[in-house]
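Task 17 of the worksheet. Students: predict the tertiary structure of the chain below and write it out as structure tokens. Keep your answer in the requested format; marks are given for formatting as well as content.
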Amino acid sequence: MLLNIGDKAPNFTLFNQNGANISLNDIKGQTCIIWFFPKANTPGWTVEGQGFRDEFKKFDKKNIKIFGVSGDSVVKQKKFHDKQKFNFDLLSDEEHSMLEAYKVWGLKKFMGREYMGIYRVTYVINPEGEIHKVYDQVKTKTHAQDILNDL
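Model answer:
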């Protein structure tokens, strides 16, 4: 069960692709988008990230921060970030503490196999630190534009 609209967004402190600490408390008063992806450099997640990259100026104009989060290491996030020329931070949660707090870590099924993994979910957090919107049905090619149309 995911977080719901109106829930207080759990605080987090994670390393970004450059090894700098990023905390939700650091961006209070701003809207932020947190999109979760299972693994760097996979086709669907790359397309989704490219959408945020390509629409970045429109989000920035609205003073909206964007963060991509996965369980990948800082090194893998850095390679993904640089290869795709992302203009927003990718956060590393190897311990899964944020993933669990945001309820995006859980049992998944693929081709009859069950495993623990990250759900394809995006949260929009309002300036008061509450969940404003939850996207759990994501179209990777249009996701960034879909969010812009909603805001």
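Marker's comment: Residues 35 and 96 are 15 Å apart (CA to CA). The beta strands are 13-16, 21-23, 31-36, 64-70, 89-92, 105-110, 113-118, 122-125, 131-135.
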